[in-house]
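We examine the record.
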Amino acid sequence: MNAPRILLLPLSIAASAALLAGCTATTTPAVEPVEGGTLVYATGDAEPSCLDPHVGGNYPQALLSTQYLESLVSKNNDGEIIPWLATDWTESSDGLTWDFTLRDDVTFTDGTPFDAQAVKANIEHLKDPETASSTGYLAVGKIDEIEAVAADQVRFTLSAPDSALLESLSQPWVSIESPTALEREQAVNCESPIGTGPFIVTDWTKQQSVTLERNENYNSPPEDAEHAGAARLDAIEWRFIPDAATRYAALQSGDVDVIDNAQPNNISSAADAPTIEELNAPRPGASNRIELNSGKAPFDDVRVREAFIRSADVNPGIESLFFGTAERSYSVLSSVEPAGISTPDVFTTDPEAAETLLDEAGWNAIDSDGYRTKDGERLSLVFPVSTNQSIPAEQSLFEQIQASAKEVGFEVILQPTDLSSWYGALFSNEYNLVSAPYTKVGADVLRILYHSDSIVPAPSGYYANLAQLSDPALDEVLTTASETSDASERLDLYAEAQSIIVDGFYVLPLYDQQNHYLYSTSVEGFRALPTVSAPTFYDAWLNN
């Protein structure tokens, strides 16, 4: 998420949006790499309030911090956990003790050695309420004790088995920072986090750009990198350009080399541009979806929740607004998650059924504006929309859903707002509907998003269970899945969990969380890390 001190902050297998128009999550160099040059990256995501992803833990932080921080483990294109700063690991038979062997040849860019004490300091930093972590805090929640067994060996003792521990540790929100730097005041560390990565933060001009310069002593790429040693680029200029048209125009003119948050119309036009390529990398974890707040009226009534979902005509909007760049999802999970279950039959649009359900729920009077009422109260739904996180096409989709819901008597009050105000609405429970992106590696995102424990705010103030789903049966399934080592059993449990969630009409899936990068053909060798699909420019170079 990204208010000050806040995160971002998710039967057949779900169809892969990676099959949509565009490239895969890796680019292939055309000629021999060259050294030097400054790559200009323009992001449409909100500017982080802190460059340390431990603080809060949102996706804009992940985008940036992937360039200068590294994690204990990574993930390859086959979905396998692979070594990074940790070389290997073992799990005890009861699942409560994990031993990690660490690289012994890595140094943070401030000269502090990377060792077991550094890992210990980082996990403690994430768990410290003063850090105000959300994503990282939830990722390491089961780690009770951290012991530096030797300089190159750290031991985690868990409160309960955690089948998702390695996936959690692969994420940028749990990346490892210099323990010396962490001792600085938080405001100072937010300005210039210090890691072991291929680039170093050298300047941050607020509301303009972050300058990243090459770490000349870099020696710790993940095992799936294309080369060893320092990065090929001299530097990266990371610009904040919130306006989509301006961002795309800068790419067309050659003023920038790579843009994210590419809009559907720009992606479509770029397909015919000889100097622009696309990298399509859907995010893991949850799909992009609308959460229905079941913790308060009117969505505390399952009939009203189902009526809203039956009234929401989603497909025409996706077809007309996204130019083939997004495919409708019928799953709570992203299409890149093997555990995802697609249930299109659950999410059929049926206005007549919606009207019947509302009649049964007592919303059977109609006021002069055509909205349903009950005991003199209008059937109104407050829907705050973050303009920082929601692209214009999506906002138009919400307007179409608003219109179709009105046909059966729902008043949907769309409230476009900046990110800080959006968080404020969530924290104060002033919403009935919300589209809240959440990225996490693996199906364990279901536990983060829908276990009743996640109604309790993290130290940042953010709580992930925005549907406010509280179901003891679901809690038990999610807890069991988290503690089960057998992969086949976990798949069955995650299928059961998804069935409970969708059958209760708590969620309206829309499409995958989109990561469409457009880049100049002068850029070679950059890719999206398979962990959370953030770009990495370690292997990248400029051919002009």
In short: Confidence is low (pLDDT under 50) at residues 1-24. The first helix runs from residue 59 to 65. The longest strand covers residues 143-150.
